[in-house]
Amino acid sequence: MEAIGLPGGALVNYIFPNNAHVTWSIMIVIYPYITGLVAGAFVLSSMYHVFGVKEFKPIANFALVAAFSFGLFAAMPLLVHLGQPQRAYQIYTTPHTTSAMSIFGYVYSSYLVLLMIEIWVIYRKVFIEKANETVGNMAIFWKILCLGITTYNPESAHFDKKLAKFLAGIGIPWACLLHGYVGFVFGSVKAVAWWATALQPFIFLSSAIVSGIAMMFLMYSFIMWRRGQGYDYALIKKFIITLWMAFILDYALEVLEIAFVGYEQGAHWAVIKPLLMGPLYNSYVLGQMGILSLGPLLVLGIASLLDIKDKALLYLGNLGSLMLVFQVLVMRFNVVVGGQLISKSERGFVDYEFEFFAKEGLLTAGIIMVAPFVTYYIISRFIPIFEGKSMDTEPKRASM
Amino acid sequence: MENSKMPDSRREFLVRLLEGTATATVLMVFGPGVMAHGPETGGTERADDADHKYAYIIDVGKCIGCGNCVRACKRENSVPTDYFRTWVERYVVREEGVYVDSPKGAIEGFEQLNKRFRDNIKLSRTVPKMCNHCHNPPCVQVCPVGATFKSPEGFVLVDRDYCMACGYCVQACPYAARFINPVEHKSDKCTWCYHRVKKGLLPACVTVCPQKARLFGDLNDIDSEVSKLFEADQWMVLKPEMHTDPTCFYIGLPREVV
Amino acid sequence: MSLPGPKAHIVRLVAVLVGALFAFLVIKEVVTPSSWNYKDWYRGDALALNSSYEAAYGGNQSCVTCHEEVNQELAEFRHQALSCESCHGALADHVKEGEKIGDAVVDDASSWQCLNCHDAQVSKPANFPQFDKEKIEEHQEIEPDMICTACHTPHDPTP
How far apart are the first and last CA of chain C? Predict the structure, then answer.
């Protein structure tokens, strides 16, 4: 092997013997990805619940249930990744507070509880209806879900709505904490040059919001298409503008990071430049920063700024969202796996190959990625998520 | 050293032996006298383990790259193939750059260098690597459950019965001294042969090194070899910019070594 | 039938949450290892675990308890400073519980153990005795399968 493109004046590619295996692979790629979808979907749902953006009203509950569906599986890749998954409970019993990872158990669980309570408060009326309509085991299930209170007090509606708003309100910083902290887990590792930047939490957070909004757009389009219910183009336009602006912020941070490291010409750049020009050229330069970023910027920009209507708007939105969903996935890959491709010998790059059938292979990743959608489908069989345009927590339907 | 001065830990160990619960064959066969004598003991003995200030010194100029240390470590600690608690690197500094290799961690030593790299060299050394047992270990900092820790004697150890193998410590170590053991699915690393040192032996790699390029001892014992070398103040540590404050010191470390 | 109070469900929810929190704290207390070191954050029993592994290498002191005669000779040998086990293998492969379980003889079919140290390489210290390939091949011209120990005593090799 020739010395071209190797750091540290290396004449041959030299990696430390223990670096030959990439310890964090696809599972740790999809872990922040799913966590990001949770955070992004939640922020979208809060657009209506907290900030009262009326256009988002039809999807506020949908985004919340979707966030919950993704949330249920956010920790799954971690469990699959662990060599000793039966010991995972230790992160709750003896969390080592000096570790950026140790609070994950608490932040994640409390966030899931918060999501559950918010959904519960919003859907309590539905649960009560179901408890009174059904018989047998299902009635017991719904009664338990109502915590035994099977009559709806109209006075509760006002209080519930305020509580939902409050939960959505504290949910935003919580979602930011959940995902910003995932960025911190990587950004605080000084031994991995490609991770170690204080911008990492912000990049993770902003890309999380982008991926969440984009995924909600795709799901919304798909569900509306399946239901043949007709599209709410005012919502779609708002969706596209929000997504476009979120991505501009995200892309600016991603560019800022690389521009800063590059301009600084420091120790990190000495290994990052050959990484980006070598092993990560396709997935980072061409993929993440190139096609998958410039494409959506252009497509969503056109859709946002020009007077585009109806189906054309829908198609542009879907095209941009699809690219962004992959942009963020590729970004997670470039960060998580890319960082480990730089051997700590600082004189060579690790060769990474995708596995398919392995425990942490692509098949497992695919199953975990599909699971939230299946979960969403199951939940949607039981509770109304889109019910025309009137499904919300307005007290007008409260009397039964 | 007299047997009466044995540290508590060893006394406990012998008591356990007498009770028939221990299986350490070495002591069974040869008795404690052998262990407590001669150059094989790791520095002075004190009652309190925290009074020790253990250090590991690697004299790069003496290393011949034979790989005895790597083989002994593999055998002593049952280290799986392709993973290393210690390994040896060969550096060849040339006008146009640096050639580095470590074939199979140098478990079979080194083959003669390719002629292309052999002529017109500026410097060439073999450099043993291992866990640096940092004072400020990033691996301990990042372990989310407290499964890796610094022992009272300063050894950075892994609790095999507690590690959940998340791999964060592997990422955090700047020296690539850690790995997830592919057989046990737990984090693994050099322990400075804690189990040997507690029995009064030296780490296996130090025991077999034919050149005394690897030294282990107590800096609190002013007569120990490590103390004298340390006092000469010509040592270096790996990646000082990481501020891990290693207790593994190198003498004659070429600046090209990472 | 009177309606439940407007906040009755919240009271129950809080009760459920408090109950869950209490259960969690109890479980946490129960499953945390009793030897936990709260100051330095590790399982105290881990120290005993880490020191419990058997030592495979005994050091030269372990060898001389049986092979006293070699020890007497060794004082004069050029290879006296070497570890017996680096060529002869680990004690644990030779003796177990006072019984010999395997031979500790050196493979005499090849010279790899000699060359492992003494093969000439640019990375070795200049004052270390080394033999380059040509010199070894010169020897082998005399007899092709010749090994170092045919002429040199491994314990006390003279040039």
Answer: 109
